[in-house]
Fold each of these.
Amino acid sequence: MATLGYQTAGDLGALLLPLYVRGDAVAQTIQKKPMLKWWEEHKETFSGGLNFEISDNVQGAFMSDTQTLTGYSNDDQLSFGQAMNTIRTAFYGKEHNWGLTISWTELKQAGITIDNKQAIRNHSEQDLYVLTKLYKNRMSDFIESYSRLKARLFFLDGSQDPKAMPGFKSIITDTPTTGTTGGISRSANPWWQHRANLALATSPNDQTLCRFFQTELRMLKLFEGEPNVAFCGNDFLNALEAEIRAKGTYTMEGFTSKGKNDFGQADISLKGLGTFTWEPMLDQLGEGKRCYILDSRRINVRPMQDEDDKTLTPTRPYNYLMFFHNITWTGTMTTTQLNCHGVYSLA
């Protein structure tokens, strides 16, 4: 570290913070967060603007809903209509901050002394080693905690904080026929509703879940939907695995093989959809019986350009013997179609 020329604790923190944020720490941390990773892979930036508004044209009604294709002859009077059926959504970005402080007292307790110019006194290899170790320990905690809170933020409906972004559950709700999404009434516009079934039965003998999702997938694709991911809780996956296991065999030779009998199962997938992925956060939030199926083309996290996990290292205030580091994130979550997504739960 000595060859890098970073002599102050603040400078070293400014160096390490972007490395931790821009590396694999957010996507792959202590506990896997597949839904957060999926959001990050499909995010689309926006340029900002008044109230951080993001608006898209959507359409569910057509002229054919109210007019017919009529025949005519000779001088019959012809009828005409207007194709004015587009509606604009309105989603609004929110600003978020995650901050870390390290005090001079902590540095002194680690054997590091800072002078009045904030330079490390007796700039030695040992000083830099201890300082780097201290910062790495704090950064690991700081980034893992940020990753966990960000994953929850993207999932929750925003009711936990009026200044926070309404996340995924504000769009894929338990009541698709009521309320609004993006300022558009779901009850007044049946086409602006996602799919939902929160009382699914399961039967290993009858393959109830397997049969349900084969049919449900066709409904999710009815209006040109292309659902491509399913996030599930542990209880849901257990029920699905039990149905598949009930009709399967362990090996080509049954239980007579002289070798090993592997009772494991491969990942569960559905042709035309993909893999049913375990999302541990669902269990942590008491939703282990749930499954969410999504179309990545029609629902996205939308960070503001140049404000996505932005790292800041503000100058130390004169009246605090502290070093400060921030990560800020500005954005929201939007959708342009709802009938290609679904929420499901075991009864």
Amino acid sequence: MHPTLPLLARTEFPPIRRRSLETLQVNLGYRCNQSCLHCHVDASPNRPESMDAATAALVLEVLRARRPSTLDLTGGAPELNPNFRALVRGARELGLKVVDRCNLTILSEPGHEDLAEFLAASGVEVTASLPCYSRDNVDRQRGDGVFERSIAGLRRLNALGYGRGDPARVLNLVYNPQGPSLPPAQHALEDDYRRELAANFGVRFDRLFTLANMPIRRFGSTLVSKGTFHDYLALLRGAHRDENLETVMCRTLVSVDWQGDLYDCDFNQMLGLPAALRGTARPHLRELLAGDGAGGAIRVADHCWGCTAGQGSSCGGALGAQAGADASHPATASS
């Protein structure tokens, strides 16, 4: 795999600073039951990294101390971590919103047959990756048979009350382009998804989030191999919008890796760029017991243009600028 950090480190991205902590995003490990081409985590069934019980317990201690509004669980497939359910229960007991970044196929994996029921009973918000409403496009990006299993997972969640406007059963879908282009306008694409999934599969959902692909790890390496890395960076930088700087996710989010180390976002985690928190070279969860680092500088590099390009991109989808209009470089759901 081609390293991308040396190509990203020098940047003119504007300086930004942290605000009060609202979301603790915890990566429970890089093991996944899929190996998607666009995955910025480079997750796969062969990855051994997994958060241990002691670090998971520290996550709950930090939640009690800092009381963010949201615990955002990601991976890999976060549900493969043996501490996943304990974290969900602990955070819900504290009254926090819990988001599960679910790949949908995990719902039909052996040993996880009751996972959908657990999520529903716990009131977990499910944010599920579905990069297209077309079988061929999804299977090309995520593997043969993934689309069919994803639709089955969505139907199962719908049967449990997800995707029907119930605030205790929220179901979001996530779209990302298949190649080096910006996502289309989020609102318009959401209408397309809603129409096609309902008509062809009887599937309902609450929101669609559009995310730009980051030029790091597996996707970035592919761009380097194809000789299109710098062209994609030029696309992202050229579509930058200053107004998106106010709402980028890193201002109110701290990313935690499977070892408990802290980063400004999940992308910086994958690049090995630790947060500059309390002057510590490699800050750990323990630092958050003393404070959330509000006011501190956020580490930036050239990949950050991906979050501010066009309508903007974050773990919660478009940031607002042009979210309902045509993006600067539109793509289609079937591209």
Amino acid sequence: MLPLLSAAIVPARARAVYAGLEREKVGNVRRWQTAAIGLAAVTALTAATGAATPAIASDDGYTFAVIGDIPYGDAQIANFPKVIAQINADPAVQWVDHLGDIKNGSTVCSDEYFQMIKSDFDQFADPLVYTVGDNEWTDCHRPNNGGYNPLERLAKIRQVFFPQPGRTLGKNSVPVTAQADLGIPENVRWERAGVAFVAADVVGSNDSLAPWTGNSAPTPEQTAEVLARTSAVLQEIRDTFADARRRHDKAVTVLLQADMFDPTVTDPKLADYYGFQPIVAALARESAAFDGPVYLFNGDSHVYDADQPLAAGSKWLSFYGIDQPVPNLSRVTVDGSTGVNNYLRVTVHAPGPQVLTWTRVPFAS
């Protein structure tokens, strides 16, 4: 256990969750693996999910759009079809990624709302990958969200938004490799234009370890879900980088909702972030072993930012217990929430130090 994980900052059940993630040295970066859910469960969770779905044909150029934390509130809900139409009309865009949070954190997580957003998603002309956010399940225990059991809401999200596991959403649905056999169809990976992509279910609210209403620590069922999903995410990250190295891909791109390096928080506490530690360690380890740039796209903190969160001198190195800087990992946070007025247009280029470039495209008035 790290010294930082004391009773003063991490409650007893949270420490028990963390104790289930054991360390293993790999080079100079810690590798974390799940050890608390039993050998049989670990074997099932980390097993191959069957024959991989066909990869999308590579090509020399590729542009995709990234959005997240939208729509928030009545005005954005009403305008969301126009946002979709604008992205559809962008001749450069061939793919869309939504980084989660399809509602704000203080509105009801109803079946009807989920169905409405799914109907909107169905209007995307290009393939759409939706990465689940915390507002639509993790935080649904809040009274103003309807007081739901978050795990029941996660099951509903999977039912509504992933009716065909292993295929994207959007009118031009295409195959992707999904962790459907593990019960986590939202975790997907694919390759295009020499870039490996992975979308993983990693959410805010301490990756769903923030206590639910009426509790001071994670419940047993909450703990079990986090351990299972974390194991699957770690496997997905490892598989993505292994495939990228085997194919000699020029870059790896990771898409998730949580901002694990939130620059808007001046004094972050490990008690609010420890759920991300094994994921950060895996990204650090795999990035350090990859001969090319790695890009992380996330939402959650709502304000556009581009940085290198694990570069030399970063406070996040010691915070997460990473021994060596990871200079090839770049991170981009997309605009979101009530102030969002653009989508991110990302273009894949030839091999080099900057395989991806991006620009913020304003929403039409």
Amino acid sequence: MRAPASDLPLVLTNASVMRRDVAILDSTTLTIAPGPPTILIGPNGSGKTTLLRVAMGLIPLSSGSISWGGRENASSERRAITFQRPAMLRRSASANLRYALGAARVPRVQRHKRAAELLTMVGLDALASRPARRLSGGEQQRLALARALARDPAVLFLDEPTASLDPYATKAIEDIVQAVSARGVKIVMSTHDLGQARRLAGDVVMLHRGRLVENTPSPEFFLTPRTEEARKFVVGELLV
């Protein structure tokens, strides 16, 4: 894996995404720098997924700007993303990875070995020949992570990868996230789970109704939240 994050810092300046006159992302200014995981939190509909897709370059801004490592039109080859419900190809776990490696232009002679390495990294080496669509939800998420890592990314965006998973499967994903982060890959991950944010975050970005309401180091966010929205969210009150 590559340690230097050439797409960082990722800088959004007054970034907005509009849908039918509704601000899904509302004049957000945010800098994401190299370091421990950045965790996005907020209630459902707060704009977390939209921010991740904008950061990946999948959807355009309605206004404002975004740059990756100082460039506004940077190639996305050093970025990867996984979604809450990953789509599996109708082939084995190993073949899913070989396909991803091919898409990443890894030479054919290297794909079998590299696929085996990635399966071992995510704890699926014993399931290499199993059809990917017959894997459990947690196993599919781990395979999705492996496919994203096939791109050898410098920045990895994760959209609620443990939603609806049991504690065992959640821990397996979190262990992978921590291992990948320790290798120098920048993780930007959304979650609605405050416990998970406490365990993983180097810094916390909180969104509400498309607006950025907090952007602070994790200990500061949980001990002394600055805004009323963050204080309510931390103690479990509903945000409407």
